[in-house]
Amino acid sequence: MNLVPLVLYAVALVAYVWHFAQRNPVVGRSATTLLVAAALSHTFVIGMQTMDVGHVPMTGATSAISTFVWLLALSYLYVEMTTDERAMGVFILPLLVVLQAIPALNPGVERRAEVLQGPLFGIHVSSLLFAYASFALAFVVGITYVLLFKEIKAKHLGFFYARLPSLQVLDRMNQGAIVIGWIFLTIGIIVGGIWAAQARGGYSGDPRVQAMALQDPKIFVALLCWLVYSFELFAARRIGWGGRRAAYLSTVGFLIVLFNFIPISYFFSKSHNF
User: Fold this and answer.
1) R_g of the chain, CA atoms, integer Å
2) Choosing a second label site near 8 at 20 to 30 A (CA), which of 19, 31, 32, 125?
3) For the residues of 201-244, what is the DSSP string, one character each?
């Protein structure tokens, strides 16, 4: 079922690229319509999977990636529809297509183990996924900021200058996305710590619970991600690291997110696979 959203995301990507190159309003509206269709089909897929296994599909690495893509698509659509700015779509859609290819090529939803049941676990994972979606938006905004900055610095106001919002608007969008992501990441880490403590009390024999410590790569990298975004949010601008440097920090932070989300989830972490 994940193949249908992937195809629609790919077609929407083509439309966004066309619109970015030609700035045709009709093509732009078509691109938005295609992305809405992709998000709706993805919502249907997640709903069917939820009915099949009895919980939102986010306990395994593959299903969590699918849910992350869905949240990112919805978050971007909200930004686009509230600002009437479609220029970011050409940078967001490649990320959606590449990540959605993983659940499309490796379909299936993992059954949730007993230790992973309960409201605290749901809040923990959903908060982290929403934080990651916000950081993905900040990452894309940061890329566009750097592209526009370089064009302005070179005094060659052309392709990106005519298509992207101003540096001030991009900087505010980057900052806003980071604030929202940091709040949800903080909630996810705190709730995850409470849930892990409870799990150790009730499931002390489970090897996944026993390994939940700073030595677990997923936990260590999540905390590293929190430190990077905390520095960007509370210290970077105070020492003059605004604008372009803040955009670079957003890129570093999101690369850490992707490292935690894909390589560690599939190849490194032995404590848990969510």
Assistant:
1) 19
2) 125
3) HH-TT-HHHHT-STTSHHHHHHHHHHHHHHHIIIIIGGGT--TH
- pLDDT tens figures, 34-92: 999 999 999 999 988 888 777 777 777 788 899 999 999 999 999 999 888 898 999 99
Distance (Å, whole) CA 97 – CA 128: 21
- Compute the C-alpha angle 134/16/253, nearest 5°: 25
CA distance 236 to 229: 9
CA distances from 29 to 16, 89, 90 (A): 9, 12, 14
Q: What is the DSSP letter of 115?
A: G
pLDDT at 249: 92
Please work out, in degrees rounded to the nearest 5, the angle formed at the alpha carbon of residue 84 by the alpha carbons of 242 and 72: 70
Q: What is the pTM of this model?
A: 0.88
List CB contacts of 207: < 8 A, sequence separation 6 or more.
270, 271
* Closest CA relative to residue 254, chosen from 225, 223, 230: 225
Q: Which of 143, 125, 122, 91 is nearest to 253 (CA)?
A: 143
Query: Is 90 exceeded by the pLDDT of residue 128?
Result: yes
CB-neighbour burial class of residue 5 (10 A; exposed 0-12, middle 13-18, buried 19+): buried
pLDDT at 26 over 90: yes
pLDDT on residue 211: 58
CB 27 within 8 A of CB 36: no
User: For 2-27, what is the mean pLDDT?
Assistant: 94
Contact criterion met (CB below 8 Å) for 184 and 144: no
User: Residue 116: pLDDT band by 50, 70, 90 thresholds?
Assistant: low
